[in-house]
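Researcher: Going back to the complex we discussed earlier. I've cleaned up the inputs and rechecked each line, so this should be the final set. Can you rerun the prediction on the complete assembly and write out the structure?
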Amino acid sequence: MDNRPSPTAPFWKRNIYRVVFEADTRAGQLFDILLLLAIVLSVLAVMLESVSSINAQYGPALRVVEWVFTGVFLVEYLMRLLVVRRPLHYALSWLGLVDLLAVVPSLLALVMVGSRYLLVVRTVRLLRVFRIFKLGQFIGEGEFILSALKASRFKILVFLSSLFTLAILMGTFMYVLEGGENGFTSIPKSVYWAVVTLTTVGYGDISPTTILGQTLATLLMIMGYAIIAVPTGIVSAQMSRNAAASATAAAGAAAAVAEATAAPAAPAYKQARCPRCQSAGHRPDAGFCWNCGGPV
Amino acid sequence: MDNRPSPTAPFWKRNIYRVVFEADTRAGQLFDILLLLAIVLSVLAVMLESVSSINAQYGPALRVVEWVFTGVFLVEYLMRLLVVRRPLHYALSWLGLVDLLAVVPSLLALVMVGSRYLLVVRTVRLLRVFRIFKLGQFIGEGEFILSALKASRFKILVFLSSLFTLAILMGTFMYVLEGGENGFTSIPKSVYWAVVTLTTVGYGDISPTTILGQTLATLLMIMGYAIIAVPTGIVSAQMSRNAAASATAAAGAAAAVAEATAAPAAPAYKQARCPRCQSAGHRPDAGFCWNCGGPV
Amino acid sequence: MDNRPSPTAPFWKRNIYRVVFEADTRAGQLFDILLLLAIVLSVLAVMLESVSSINAQYGPALRVVEWVFTGVFLVEYLMRLLVVRRPLHYALSWLGLVDLLAVVPSLLALVMVGSRYLLVVRTVRLLRVFRIFKLGQFIGEGEFILSALKASRFKILVFLSSLFTLAILMGTFMYVLEGGENGFTSIPKSVYWAVVTLTTVGYGDISPTTILGQTLATLLMIMGYAIIAVPTGIVSAQMSRNAAASATAAAGAAAAVAEATAAPAAPAYKQARCPRCQSAGHRPDAGFCWNCGGPV
Amino acid sequence: MDNRPSPTAPFWKRNIYRVVFEADTRAGQLFDILLLLAIVLSVLAVMLESVSSINAQYGPALRVVEWVFTGVFLVEYLMRLLVVRRPLHYALSWLGLVDLLAVVPSLLALVMVGSRYLLVVRTVRLLRVFRIFKLGQFIGEGEFILSALKASRFKILVFLSSLFTLAILMGTFMYVLEGGENGFTSIPKSVYWAVVTLTTVGYGDISPTTILGQTLATLLMIMGYAIIAVPTGIVSAQMSRNAAASATAAAGAAAAVAEATAAPAAPAYKQARCPRCQSAGHRPDAGFCWNCGGPV
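Model: Rerun complete. Updated structure for the full complex:
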């Protein structure tokens, strides 16, 4: 991120950088608030244009609004390119691509009909503006959630693949049981139904009508209801583990102090923690974790 | 809240205050129970009146009931105004406004048709009556829930804005994929569908019919199913943190005692001072100043 | 429960008691398994009889089955009455009433048509039969769940009344917004819709059609999605609290041992815990909690 | 699992075993990736064949694909049988049966129409291929989830039987209340509706229409919403318990060290020896042997 103009850059460059990229001056904060407004209004314009009754009446006006905003975002994008030290580095960064995406669809729509709707991608830019509010706070919370999800990614992968396997198996059984005349016209559609049921969404566009099918659906629903506890448990466990880790650390501190007080210290526990469950307090000669049985 | 009549106020004023505002006498409790009944019955009357078959038969009677209750609540409101020490302070307090709202819609309905239904706002007054039961208990529990929500407000804000961004993006993709003939007639409607799906409500008033649309919907559902773990995890984590805090505290006590036994005790307190009152000597894991209660 | 026949009762009485009421003999276990079968089969018979196509074919047979089971349960009930020491005490106990309810509806159906379906109340008797499996285990787990729910009953009450208040308010707004022609024909029906939406059930029998209504519904759904975290958090917090309690206890033990080793114990932390978050380890002169900032 | 060919087996046997059964060589990993692809493609072919429009166009081609994959899996199965030391042991193992199931339905379909769809059982084989990725990690996570579910199996059983009892009782009440003309045509169908409602799936294929029915449904939904907290709580509690266990352990370590400083040290280790390797000196709260990693 250290792409700020060099201290020897012209004054206006450094000034624009502070306004456009940072939020610690009054001008910078005002810029961010205006940008926020522009993003919300431009996305709203695209959304409203798709409503046929509104389009019939205000269509041309909305299209003008759209082009104005595209112009504004284009100018902003060029300005950002201009003031950073290494323009290419910015252009290829994640944020740079998002900034570009806010402009491209309008231009693309001149060639390809329908691509204009991609303008809603601009909503993603909202994330950029979070820093008007307490930046650290927001980023911190976002990272907290992401890191909890990341730490549980293997568990979530195992969970999702079990879910899909279950959905494919149950969907196929229902396809055989209920058949096409009750809406289960193909296996992919039946798998779609199984996911709709397992996740407790339950549109009701397809639903079982035979007694056997309803019994199987009942089982599937209860399964879905029971296993919804699993992702929640996974994330909560990750949180609890963090919480417990800090408790463990505090207790470990107690142990350390107590150790210091003892003159002829008895051979205490191993320093290392279990790489799998993070529990401490292993025998110095232990080969396996007393808590989870994994190697230490 | 210390708006009670001055000790030199006439006896009847102080007496009515105790009955109307407090619940520690038998008369006060009886008053609260009658008020509870009146609120429930009056809301029920408004609700029943909206049912056309009941309105056809009992309409006039229900309207009489409504006016009687409006009269009762008006008398109660005036009485409250009369006995408090500073009437304006009460009238502008949150509870005072709620008490007023229980009366206004009926009067407003004389001028503006349809505003009568606002009378259901009276249900909010139920919260006032909680104090017949163990007041402290209820308020305490409510505060426990609220403080957990408050402590996680940034996380919840980040979570909700990600949810909305996801809904807008997915809704637009579905609008392009499925098109108007399958019910996805506009982007706002498609975003509405995306929220219906993500939250696992699943009305089924709009649902995908093409294979591509159903595949995308499947992804969205599983996402919704997975991220339902996040708000739960956020709140649970807040709880766990409190729980862990107390465990940490206990372990900390062990450390402190052990420390006391050691001759050259290491510095046990935080280096930093309180930014508000400049006091030192905070626990290393303290989040609040022991002296002024401000954040450290 | 100590309603066993006196030791001086005739041998057959004490024997039947052991078989009918207890499950520690082979005969007692066999009796329980047969009873389990009888309950499941009799409930199944009542359920199948209500299916018109099955009733047309096997109706008379099913009615015979029903009467046979009623006879069996009547004999069982009388036998239980006969062998206990204080028959009235058993008859008025919770289990005694459930045993009676398994018989009454059949007899009642001779007088009152339709009451026969109450026979499904027999399913409740299944709970009696749990003791064939490891009784203590089951009762223990059931009590664990119940005690967690009981400990959170105030929180749940506060939560439910807030939920109802929200549903009544939102339902009324939708009634005013959408009106009868879109299915929101009365306030009670709209409140029903609001509960269907808040709980993420989402039948779709009523759903908003105006843009304003769909926007409000979107808000309601996200609220429902967010507050589903609350009951989960409440129960989990109760569990975490128990878990933390045991950790605290262990840490306390550590403290106790450490204390015992120290000769001249220095003044440690305050004895009192924070009344708000229950954390310990405050400075003796602390005025505020280091963890939550509340007064101590 | 120790079914590898004896060291004296011919070289090609041992070589094929390493490729087919293990994933620690480049060839073994390539084999697993190809197998993964074959499974996904073959399941996809079965699924697509069931879509009538695709079947009309590509039916014969898809059937050829199916037979090719059946041939491939048959060869693979025979190869596995050939190289293991004890073929019968492999054939009767869980994984062996799954491998066989990937072949049988195609052959069965020659005799019995419709059994071909059982080929989707092949998805279960995906679990076999997890070991291309970090095997230990995946298995570990899967075991973590499973062990948490296993530890709570009694609680889940109690919970599910209460759920079913509730569904049967409520379903019957609704059957009596709403009757056949509103879709509640039989008790089994009404119980199906009750489960659809309790689990918050809410298809809407059956939904109450009378005011009384909707009131009862409202109660049921709120119950379902409240008790969804229970399975989540159960699993989370299991996790918290583990987390607390490690905290307790650390605190225990502090206690142990402190104890060591005291003159007459109490016996700090468990009395019992490891049932597998007979080693002594386990922590009092150890769940696994420090020496061999087996359960103690």
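Model: Worth noting: Chain C is about 65% helix and 0% strand.
Researcher: Good, that matches what I expected from the previous run.
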